[in-house]
Amino acid sequence: MLGQHRSTQRRVPQGRDDEERLTADIIELAHQYGRYGYRKIAELLRSTAGWVINDKRVERIWRREGLKVPAKQPKRGRLWLSEGSCIRLRAERPNHVWSYDFVEDRTHDGRKYRMLNVIDEFTHECLAIRVNRKLKAADVIDVLSDLFILRGVPGHIRSDNVLCWEAAGALGQQISARRFAGSALWIE
């Protein structure tokens, strides 16, 4: 009739009356349950909110609003909250947050050695490096207690090693035994 191919004609989608309410409910549930995807949110909408909808519609709104499930973090040291955000304590001043970790390497003849590094996270200053063939919890305690005497007790200490956790437990006892005055020590 008009001489135009039917693929050139597009119908403009009208949308539904309840689209805005549904979008608001999806966004609210996505913020409340940060680790849920669109399928689980659709299930919640059907079971708790009383919506009669299918997963495809929820997925379309989910994509249109740019909602995403955050990438799953490794089991050790999870940091997310219920809304799915990742919050880690940031250093606000010098001596607020220290972190320590071990680095391991080998000499030219194949013998390994370890280094204990203590860093101030605000200034990025290396406070101490202890190098030895074997480093034990007592070495961590010695290095940190010497730093406490020289620089004062930090607000927080961050570590991710099992050996460091053992040292941290003993360190708390040693701090109370030496009666360090000042701020409270938090070990993450």
Give a quick account of the main beta sheet: strands, pairing sense, barrel closure: 5 strands, mixed
Q: Can you count the beta strands?
A: 5
Please give the count of helices.
Answer: 5
Domain count, please report it: 2
Beta percentage is: 15-25%
Low-confidence stretches: 173-184
Mean pLDDT across every amino acid position: 78
Structure classification: alpha/beta
Element string (H = helix, E = strand) = HHHEEEHEHE
CATH class of the largest domain: Alpha Beta
Named at the architecture level, the CATH assignment of the largest domain is: 2-Layer Sandwich
Oligomer: single chain
Q: So what's the overall shape?
A: elongated
Spatial order of the strands in the main sheet?
3-2-1-4-5
CATH level-four homologous superfamily name of the largest domain: Ribonuclease H-like superfamily/Ribonuclease H
CA-CA gap between termini: 75 Å
**Rg computed from alpha carbons, rounded to a whole number of angstroms:** 28 Å
Per CATH, what is the topology of the largest domain? Answer: Nucleotidyltransferase, domain 5
The helix fraction, in percent, is: 25-40%
Would you mind describing this structure in some detail?
With 188 residues, this protein is of the alpha/beta class. The chain folds into two domains: 61 residues; 91 residues, Nucleotidyltransferase, domain 5 (2-Layer Sandwich). It is 36% helix and 17% strand. Helix 5 links the parallel strand 4 and strand 5.
